[in-house]
Design goal:
Blueprint: H1 2-15, H2 17-25, E1 39-50, E2 64-74, H3 80-84, E3 89-102, E4 106-118, E5 125-138, E6 157-172, E7 175-187, E8 198-210, E9 236-248, E10 258-271, E11 276-287, H4 290-297, E12 309-320, E13 323-334, E14 343-352, E15 357-366, E16 369-381
Antiparallel strand pairs: 1-2, 1-8, 2-3, 3-4, 4-5, 5-6, 6-7, 7-8, 9-10, 9-16, 10-11, 11-12, 12-13, 13-14, 14-15, 15-16
């Protein structure tokens, strides 16, 4: 069932989009401009069950409640990307679930930002997709002596991922109600094994109240993309970055050790529209776990330089104000350890800190096999 966990890691990176968007878009209101912010308070009640993706999970309770309290903003087009994505709701949620009060799994609490993308623009009836990711805490974790029955999670602190499909109806000028179905997932990204994860299916109801009078939607402004057809310095961007990651070795090898991964990269982009860029990239990575993997497979190498993986890739960037979502599809041209294959993918989120400095979080995968999650900084020109 490892593929389920690896797939969920990709969902993690997509979900991490909500963290960066919320961090730049939700701010404390000034007293004279409260009306323009469209702030809301929302209470969500869920009832769900564990998805038994491992046989060991079948012994745990089948039904339990969860509760969420959210502070959020119903966007209205103040930024161009908000109108482009049908005026999403962005916010932060406090989550709690008893998980059936088991002595093995324990209880769960989480705090995560989210973004709720509407599929339509109706002011009364809206169907939308909501996802968020943040920090979760589980009161129980795996311990080989005291809690060996918990084969799901090897750490107290984990990433908490929430995905839901929602129908929302405005029942009054400042009041909304909603019904939803969704999934909640806890995982540590293989930073500590075991990491089979906890998956829950849920359904529920919610009620939201606008703090002030709602602001009217600002219509989407038409953008002239002709300026981006030219090849000049204004339409080109150059990113230079470094990221660091740590991961636990695969349990089948029998080690319980954390390994470091260092990655240098360059991306060159051409802007083709107001929100889109395409380009090429170069990666240079050194994964310290490769030594152990080669030893386990009985493969010899003469020096550490043979362990360095270089790769070339094609890249795409979707820009949402100061936040970007980047996809790289690449091919390793050097490197001794190629158990995952030579073709690789990177799913990243970039957050601009200043005109030239940015922070980035990214997942490197080999198709369905997730390798590591990296955190880093970078410098950009233009």
């Amino acid at each position: 069932m490892k593929n389920i966990v690896q797939t969920n890691k990709k969902v993690l990176i997509l979900s991490l989009l909500s963290i960066l968007i919320c961090s730049t878009q939700v701010s404390v209101a000034q007293e004279d401009s409260k009306k323009s912010n469209n702030f809301q308070i929302e209470l969500r009640t869920n009832y769900g069950f564990f998805i038994h993706h491992h046989l060991e999970m079948t012994r745990f309770p089948a039904r339990f409640p969860s509760f969420e309290l959210s502070f959020q903003q119903a966007t209205f087009g103040k930024k161009d990307w908000q109108a482009y994505f049908n005026y999403p709701i962005i916010g932060i949620t406090a989550y709690y679930s008893s998980l059936g009060n088991t002595d093995v799994i324990g209880q769960a609490v989480a705090l995560y930002p989210f973004i709720n993308f509407p599929f339509n623009k109706s002011k009364i009836n809206t169907v939308s997709f909501r996802f968020g990711v943040g920090l979760g805490y589980l009161t129980k974790k795996y311990d080989r002596h005291e809690n060996f029955q918990n084969t799901s999670i090897g750490s107290h602190f984990n990433a908490a991922i929430s995905l839901s499909l929602e129908y929302r109806r405005r029942i009054a000028k400042r009041y909304d109600i909603a019904a939803f179905i969704g999934l909640t997932h806890f995982s540590n990204g293989s930073s500590r094994c075991p990491n089979n994860g906890i998956n829950m299916a849920q359904c529920g109801l919610s009620a939201a109240c606008l703090i002030n009078e709602p602001q009217e939607y600002i219509p989407k402004r038409l953008s002239d993309n002709k300026q981006y057809k030219k090849w000049n310095l204004k339409t080109m961007s150059y990113y230079f970055g470094f990221s660091y990651s740590f991961k636990d070795i695969d349990e089948c090898i029998g080690y319980n050790k954390t390994f470091s991964v260092y990655n240098l990269y360059v991306n060159i982009f051409k802007q083709i529209s107001r929100l889109n860029k395409i380009g090429v990239g170069l990666d240079v990575a050194y994964d310290t776990s490769d030594k152990t993997a080669l030893l386990y497979d009985g493969i010899s190498y003469s020096n550490d330089f043979q362990l360095i993986k270089t790769g070339i890739n094609i890249a795409y960037e979707l820009m949402m104000d100061n936040t970007s979502f980047i996809i790289n599809m690449g091919y390793h041209i050097t490197g001794k350890e190629m158990d995952g294959g030579k073709i690789y993918q990177k799913l990243s989120l970039k957050q601009n800190i200043s005109k030239h400095l940015f922070a980035c979080i990214g997942l490197t995968t080999h198709f369905a096999r997730a390798d590591y999650i990296g955190f880093g900084l970078g410098f950009k020109i233009n």
